[in-house]
Amino acid sequence: MATELLLLSLQEILFIAISGTLICIAVHFVPVGGAPAAMAQATGIGTGTVELAAGSGLVGLLTASYMYSSVPDAPMALVLAAGAIGSMTMMAVTMFFGGLVYAYGVGVPFASAQVKKDPITGARQDIYMSKGTQGQGLPMVCYVSGLIGGALGGIGGAMIYFALESIYKPLIGESAPAVAGIFTMGVFYVNAVIASYGVGGTIEGFHDPKFRRVLPKDTLTAFIVSLLCGVVAVLIAWGMV
Amino acid sequence: MSDIKEIPASTLAAFGIIGGLVGIYLSPYFPAAGALGAICAVIWASEAVRRVSKYGLGTGVPSIGQIAMGMGIVASMFGLAIMHTIPLAGPIVALLTASVIGLIIGWFAQNVIKMKIPVMIRCMTEIAAAGSLIIVGFSAAVAGGFEFKQLLHSVFDNGIMLIAFWVGAVAILHPFNAVLGPDEKQKRLLYLAGSTGAITMAILGIAAMMTLGNSGIITLLLGVILWLIFYKLFWDEVYKDAAAVVGTGLIPRTEA
């Protein structure tokens, strides 16, 4: 029975593994500065990696599940798009208001410490950096990177939800959204934390040299751990019969 | 620090595992026992969080509480669900599954991500295992049992699982997050862990009043009483450890 179930849900397990990896990659795109950024002494949003990833990911989960439940036989692409839009909205709002606080509250010019010129606008960065800091605020490239991260995280979260919901729904009916949603949160947190351990707490976005250095090993870890979570989550369906 | 005698990690682990499992197995007869067992696991987990976070995770202590619950929730439901024909084995299988997932994540963190924390593998295993006991314990206190079908209707459908997930995570991560620093002591941490566990029990007692009625009141009252006791112990410990607070006045204005 267990092997049969696993074989039948191979596709779903693979979806969960891929989406876990997407979430892990997403975290690398999000400009997180941690505590130094909260004091405007580093580039990025002033909070932890996990908090940001979870905040945007959970909004994505909400929009994705709303789409799943309100559109009859919603195709996967639609649910994933809903998740991506939700996450990106949350990310954009967070960065926009964070930016307002940095610009008009703290009063710092936005500058990245990792690149000399903003790869998107081409604006000089180093002359605007205050001495003794790691950059401040959210330059254009960080904002764009954050939006990409939001989209990937939202797609990842929505894909896990979609995969689990399609397994659980025939078995437990009305309880399925709750169970699928909570397991999605579980897998989401595991991958967000793995990624944040990989980046060591702070990263500016895809232009950060750290991005290339840590991405491969974090992606490998996230893939294997999510695969394991996928197998476990699919086997739970066995107990629902 | 070496002159202060600390409770060894393995003693606390034994306390957490035995206390947690006994509490969970008693929960069908006395639902509040599940939450009491979960408090034992909270105390164990916060000690494991303390040992691993001392090395500096780079991401803040909260991240480890969240990963613990993330691993715990998937593993514990797996254990309970796959053992639905032999419900008694459920909590033990949940504990073992969580330990294995924790071990694998710890191994990857240590050897692939290269976090260079010597206790990473052991602590990650302990935290995941404790996370599963906390999830099963608190949800058993609300559902009045630990069978998967029972939990499905009285913990998942109404969203109480989210409270167990979040408040449980804070119960693990808050103690070390609050007491860390140069003069951090294990005793103070353990009392605070007891109090965060107890306040979680009280909150879930309110939830249990919804699902179980009168026996939820017992969970709520026991939780509040335990919280007061542990908080008083923590308070006393803080007073004992605190150096004298002396009023020095404002900084003199020399440059005026």
What this model shows, in words?
The complex is a heterodimer of chains A (241) and B (256). Chain A has 241 residues and is mainly alpha-helical. Chain A has one domain. Helix content of chain A is 71%, strand content 2%. Chain A is built from eight helices and two strands. In chain A, strands 1-2 form a two-stranded antiparallel sheet. In chain A, helix 2 (10-29) runs antiparallel to helix 6 and helix 4 (49-70) runs antiparallel to helix 7 (176-199). The longest helix of chain A is centred in the middle third of the chain and has 33 residues, at 140-172. The radius of gyration of chain A is 19 Å and the shape is elongated. With 256 residues, chain B is mostly helical. Chain B has one domain. In chain B, helix 1 (9-26) runs antiparallel to helix 2. Classes of the chains: A mainly alpha (241), B mainly alpha (256). At the A-B interface, helix 4, helix 7 and helix 8 of A face helix 3, helix 4, helix 6 and helix 7 of B.
Put the structure in a nutshell.
The complex is a heterodimer of chains A (241) and B (256). With 241 residues, chain A is mostly helical.
Notable features of this structure?
heterodimer, A: 241 residues, 71% helix, B: mainly alpha
How does the overall form of chain A come out from the CA principal axes?
Answer: elongated
Structural shape of chain B: globular
Whole-Å distance between the termini of chain A?
11 Å
Structural class of chain A: mainly alpha
Count of the domains of chain A: 1
Give the number of helices of chain A: 8
- Percent helix of chain A, as a range, is over 70%
Number of beta-strand segments of chain A: 2
Largest β sheet strand count, sense and barrel closure of chain A: 2 strands, antiparallel
User: Helix content range of the residues of chain B, please?
Assistant: over 70%
Order of helices and strands of chain B: HHHHHHHHH
> Quick check: average pLDDT of chain A?
88
Order of helices and strands of chain A: HHHHHEEHHH
Please compute the radius of gyration of chain B using only Cα atoms.
Answer: 19 Å
Domain count of chain B = 1
**Total strand count of chain B, please?**
0
Averaged pLDDT of chain B: 88
Unreliable segments of 5+ consecutive residues of chain A: none
Number of helices in the DSSP assignment of chain B: 9
